[in-house]
Specification:
Order of helices and strands: HEEEHEHEHEEEEEHEHEHEHEHHEH
Organism: Leptothrix cholodnii (strain ATCC 51168 / LMG 8142 / SP-6)
Radius of gyration: 22 Å
Domain XdhC- CoxI: 15-87
Number of strands: 15
Structural class: alpha/beta
Strand content: 15-25%
Largest sheet: 6 strands, parallel
Protein name: Xanthine dehydrogenase accessory factor
Helix content: 25-40%
Pfam family, one: XdhC_CoxI
Strand order of the largest sheet: 12-11-10-13-14-15
Oligomer: single chain
Shape: elongated
Domain XdhC Rossmann: 169-311
Length: 325
């Protein structure tokens, strides 16, 4: 399953190819409470069809009405990008469903060849983080190497946004727990890869949207080179498989590396990786084990939920410690 940014870009390209006018809408700044964070994307075509979102729905309805009534040029007031603000007054906040009198500032951009949507989409597919610089005076776009999670910057002349690769999770082991984990990860917009060299485990393991690999886990990790948008979770309980994956994952840029097991097994694993594989303490500190937040989980589905909750927390910069379930 694609994440929302990728879906917006792919759909925009499809509308362009079909000859439809398209407006790309970006949340540039917010004040107070707001339904969607800065950097959120949506696109609206000339028929009023949308993909993505910038609020809970009321702002989208207003933008759709503008386009249906006057077309793309009317929504932007010209063929150039426009800045639009919602929620300045209490009445507007109430009308547009903004909580607590929040204010959101949007940039509306008529999509053209200058928008470089295809190049941006290609960069995301190639897992390259990109800084996109939109000239508000001309509609020209410059793409350059950047970081994925930068905060948008809006000036009188430019909008600078940051886009990058879809969040990805590599799961070691094909079993009931990994099936539940993958289902949750897909719903959260992660790219999901399951690795298990054991044919008897893989034979009946299928889930739409998940890539299943029969490689040895360490070979897969070396090949994929986990980046800062990748999580790795080892679920086999087999040191020959889990440890091999963890050795390389802990020395990669992966934002999360976790493994299931009791606290005792986790302590033994840490000692084993340090004593037999010379893994430095700094690398071992990255290991989340036992993987998952403490939610009293007992079943495979609940354990999967606890692990994905921790993965998302770490991805979003929330500090959390693994605790026994």
């Amino acid at each position: 399953m694609e994440d929302l940014d990728t879906r917006v870009l792919r759909t925009t390209l499809g509308w362009q190819a079909a000859g439809l006018p398209v407006v790309l809408v970006t949340v540039a700044r917010t004040w107070g409470s707001s339904p969607r964070p800065p950097g959120s994307l949506m696109a609206i075509n000339g028929r009023g069809e949308t993909v993505g979102s910038v609020s809970g729905g009321c702002i989208e309805d207003d933008l759709i009405a503008r386009i249906r009534e006057g077309g793309v040029q009317a929504a932007c007031a010209s063929d150039k990008p426009a800045v639009l603000r919602y929620g300045i007054s209490a009445d507007q906040a109430h009308r547009f469903g903004l909580p607590c009198g929040g204010t959101v500032e949007l940039v509306l951009e008529p999509v053209s060849a200058h928008s470089r949507v295809q190049a941006l989409f290609d960069a995301c597919q190639q897992r390259r983080s990109t800084e996109r610089v939109l000239d508000l005076r001309t509609g020209q776009v410059e793409l350059r190497e950047g970081r994925r999670d930068g905060v948008p910057e809006l000036t009188d002349t430019h909008l600078i946004t940051h886009l990058g690769p879809q969040a990805r999770i590599i799961v070691i082991g094909a079993g009931d727990l990994s099936r539940f984990l993958c289902q949750i990860a897909l719903g959260l917009g992660f790219e999901v890869i399951v690795c298990d060299p054991r044919e008897e485990q893989r034979a009946s393991w299928r889930l739409d949207g998940v890539v299943v690999s029969h490689e040895m886990p360490d070979d897969l990790i070396v090949r994929l080179k986990p980046d800062a948008r990748t999580a790795v979770v080892a679920l086999t309980h087999d040191p020959k498989l889990d440890d091999l994956a963890l050795i390389d994952a802990l020395q990669s840029d992966a934002f999360y590396v976790g493994a299931i097991g009791s606290r005792r097994n986790t302590a033994q694993r840490r000692a084993r990786l340090h004593e037999h594989f010379d893994l430095p303490e700094a690398a071992l500190q990255k290991l989340h084990g036992p993987a998952g937040l403490h939610i009293g989980s007992k079943t495979p589905a609940e354990i999967a939920l606890s692990i994905m909750a921790q993965v998302v927390a770490v991805k979003n910069g929330v500090r959390t410690d693994a605790q026994p379930r």
